[in-house]
Specification:
This protein has about 80 residues and is mainly alpha-helical. It has one domain. It is about 70% helix and about 0% strand. Helix 1 crosses helix 4.
């Protein structure tokens, strides 16, 4: 289950409207619901808010958060290098 601390980090990194970013990532990883369909916006929110448990989705969400953090750090380094020139 996603903790309150992880939820705050999720919103801080991906923004309040994180589901449009999470949905394609789940599709890219091939993570489907029990019926073999893509997760709905409501399902993703329920999992992220801790009302439902789904370890695969929770893990994928936190992987996306970590991937986004790394991408933002890399972008900041590039900007810093460019501003020194």
């Amino acid at each position: 289950m996603i903790s309150k601390k992880e939820k705050r980090l999720l919103i801080e990194i991906l923004g309040c409207q994180y589901t449009p970013k999470v949905m394609p990532y789940l599709q890219k990883l091939g993570i489907k619901n029990e019926k073999g369909k893509s997760f709905s916006v409501d399902s993703i929110r329920m999992i992220a808010n801790g009302f439902r448990e789904n370890e695969k989705v929770e893990l994928a969400i936190m992987q996306l958060v970590n991937k986004t953090i790394k991408a933002k750090k890399a972008m900041a380094l590039k900007r810093k290098k460019l501003s020194k020139k």
